[in-house]
Amino acid sequence: MAGGGGDLVVHRFPQSKAVDSVRWLPAVSAFDRFVAAAVHDPDSGSSALEVHALELIQQGEESDALDLLPRDSWSSASRISALRCSNVPAEPLTVALSTFAGSLHFLFVDPVEGTIESELSPVAGERWLHSGPISAVDLQPEGRECVSVGQDGRVNLVSVAEGSMEHRRVHDARGLVSYTAVRWGSSVEFATGGLAFGLQWWDQRKPGGPVSHLKGDSFQGMASGIVHSIDVHPSRKHICLAGGSSGAVFAWDLRWQKQPVLLSGAGLGQQRQSPCESEVWEIQYDSLIQTGFSSTPSAKILPVMICSEDGVLAVLEQGKDPIELLAEPCAVNAFDIDGRNPSDVVCSLEWEAIALLMRPRDSSAF
Q: Is-annotated flag, keyword Nucleus (predicted)?
């Protein structure tokens, strides 16, 4: 398996709590960089959303070091199940998080100070969104509308307007179908995923249910898998990426829906080596390695990054061997690529740490 290149720099920041998820907050200046982290203390059972500032610390006259310093926090009554941030610099920045108790919360963060200015939360005891854990949420770029899905089979849209949360139920499968992942494709379209490697495409202009389905029987004996993460490229919304069980990474092209394009997965008959054989927890298009792809055919799958339960952070490119960036002795629970500086990737490690990878800006170095 290919290595990550000699210029790859990895910083590890030990934490006092388990880190379930991490997200970059969109930067309004080059001097203010913040990371939002969902943390959990197994000893006390407490959970929180923490905002950390990435800062240069002077060690001497000729050397500086990076540090990740706590800036603010918000306590959660239940463990955080999903975390998303708006990706458009604004004042304030919006963070959406869901919990295993079935609640959805919006936090508003000062983009310069990194402090949590306000929050929007459901009334105590109110359970109008989901019955049971919320599996996944996703925010529109401006952070004003959120889609949530759960194991109860509900699909909800929640918008923020004048200091209140407005809710609309898109679908309720009444527990007959469980949804485990969701991602916006446009202002009116989104994709969901769940059991049996199933994917669904929804269009709010066409109510009544999903407008397209991908069924797990396309995977030749792998239909028992679960989709954990989805991504949709903003300029190629017809191709939906998914990562899930047994190292499976595949693309679903809405124009040719019957057969998914398999990029990785144990036992899926791939000729090239798969970077992992366990659960793929997160998947994102890798914007650093897309410069040379602007003129490629639209059917070409752009490079993607994944993280896994067996401690791998890797980049997959169709038709090439994977590029392994990290191989940890513990799970890599989540990662996020900085939208403004795509060479920088932040990761949450199961062994109570946050890692920062700084890749060479020239993608050919890989």
A: yes
Distance CA 349, CA 39 (A): 11
Q: How far apart (Å, rounded) are the C-alpha atoms in residues 305 and 366?
A: 13
Q: Is 339 domain-assigned?
A: yes
CATH number at residue 315: 2.130.10.10
The gap between the terminal CA atoms of the chain, to the nearest Å, is 12
SS3 assignment, position 365? helix
Indicate whether 94 belongs to any domain: no
SS3 262: strand
Strand ranges (E), 199-267: 199-203, 212-214, 227-233, 236-244, 249-253, 261-264
332 close to 349: Cβ distance less than 8 angstroms: yes
* Triad 136, 314, 133: Cα angle to 5°: 15
* Cβ atoms within 10 Å, residue 113: 14
Whether residue 228 is predicted with pLDDT greater than 90 in this model: the reply is yes
Q: Mind listing the pLDDT tens digit for each residue in 131-167?
A: 889 999 999 988 889 999 999 999 999 998 877 888 8
Question: Would the pTM count as exceeding 0.85?
Answer: yes
47 assigned to some structural domain: no
d(CA 199, CA 264): 17
Residue 285's domain comprises 218-289+299-360
Does 23 reside within a domain?
no
